[in-house]
Amino acid sequence: MLLRQWPWAYCIVSTNVGGLPYLIEDKKCGFLVPVNDAVAMAKGVIWLIENPDEAKQIAECGRRKIKEFDWQLIKQEWDEVLV
What we know:
Layout: H1 2-5, E1 13-15, H2 20-23, E2 31-33, H3 38-50, H4 52-66, H5 71-82
Parallel strand pairs: 1-2
């Protein structure tokens, strides 16, 4: 789901589990909150609503980050390595 939201420049507030910390730089390209912490999740969403300019910067960071996962780019990089 995360990779589907970033191209549209949505802000991400997610739990800090699995590979998500690798994808989301906390407070730079989104917000990471502890698992089962609804208060922290709500605070992240509220912060984004109250800080629209910063939220736009965070969303744009995510939009740039998603380009790292473009399959055409990944294929091209692997072609360069393997050839």
